[in-house]
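Priority: low. Protein: Olfactomedin 4. Input follows.
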Amino acid sequence: MRPGHPFLLGLLLFLGQAAGDSGDLDFLASTPDSSSFLGFDSGSSFGSSTSPTFLGSKAPPSQSLSNFTGSVDDRGTCQCSVSLPDTTFPADRVERLEFTAHILSQKFEKELSKVKEYVQLISVYEKKLLNLTVRIEVMEKDTISYTELDFELIKLEVKEMEKLIVRLKESFVGSSEIVNQLEVEIRNMTLLVEKLESLDKNNVLAIRREIEALKKKLKECEASKGEGSPATPPPPSPGSCSHGGVVNVSRPAVVQLNWRGFSYKYGAWGRDYSPQHPGKGLYWVAPLNTDARLLEYYRLHNTLDDLLLYAYARQNRITYGQGSGTAVYKNNMYVNWYNTRNIAKINLTTNTVAVTKTLPGAAYNNRFSYANVAWQDIDLAVDEHGLWVIYSTEASTGNMVISKLNDTTLEVLNTWYTKQYKPSASNAFVVCGVLYATRTLNTRTEEIFYYYDTNTGKEGKLDITIHKMQENMQSINYHPFDQKLYVYNDGYLLNYDLIFLQEPQEAV
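Result:
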């Protein structure tokens, strides 16, 4: 370090002040070869026990400087070293601390917002719980018991509607589809009221709403009877053929879904017909298995009310029924025997096979089944004249063949050959010896488009519309006494009223 350097002068001044020198220091310039530098003795060294001597003043011996060393080299140059305390500011550590504090602050804010949200939710749930508590207290204090309502009053209302229906039927000339449907609904309502006496109060409220809806329908029906609509001709007497054939079909009445459920879309249903007891036949439901082929289980009900309520059913099992061409006549069920052209007669009382018979020449196993309906090559039917079978043969090249059967022996009594190709029809039934064939127009409409009269041997075209609930009519069974069609419509049980021509006339 060169003598007279400003930094050295300032440093020495600082050290001198730190040593307690209270006097003014006079620094005199000297040449490099002088024996002393700024009053230091040339023989002395910094940091030695000898106190340095300043020009014009001497430092007290007790206040020697520390934390430095110094010496003069052989050329007379002063060499000194000063140890200063570590006062470097830790900026990097402060930066890391600030970053950590920022992260912690963000986490704290997030958790705080969650806490605020939970507090709000708790407040909402407290209000809901309070409202629920109040509602429960009201219910507990409510002294009204709907199960103790006067059901006789409800029954009286239903009876009044029944009387009104009777008067409406008497005032109409002929039959009315609306009135008949209302009569069925009221009868079902009576059964429901009786069942409700053992049920809870909510069902009572529901039945009251149904009663109000029925009352409204009755009022509308009564108001419409005087509007000058043309009178419908009276139907022929049950079981009689004193008419000119089918001219129209009512809209469908949905009875219910079959007892096996939605998956059982294929099958048949109807009502047993016996000329000796025409109005007392059993109701039967025969869904096929989900393969649309095997008839394994069927149920019998004494009344329609039992069928509606799934009550008092007799369920039987067989292992040989095929397809949905089933018919019931005189307490016997007639089916196509599985994988054959045979017909089986099953006694419904014992569920045993009474007779089996081969149908000569009949095609089977989907050779000439109906359109969109499989395994119904052999379709059995019942009308006022007895038991029939509708089928095709190879000789008829798939055209419909109609045979009248002896219901006891299953012998073929007579056969008629038509010009109608069976697979182009969707189904068929027989009324008073006349075959009626249907075809599909769309997913909601069928059409009776063809007839063959076995009484005259004549055939022709028709255009009678049939409305349906589902796409495919799996089977159609006619009941002579009810004069209804019983239709199995993709698992749903429907029935239709037939409307006949008033006077017999020659078929065209």
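The radius of gyration is 55 Å. The helical segments are 6-18, 91-141, 151-171, 177-196, 201-224, 304-308.
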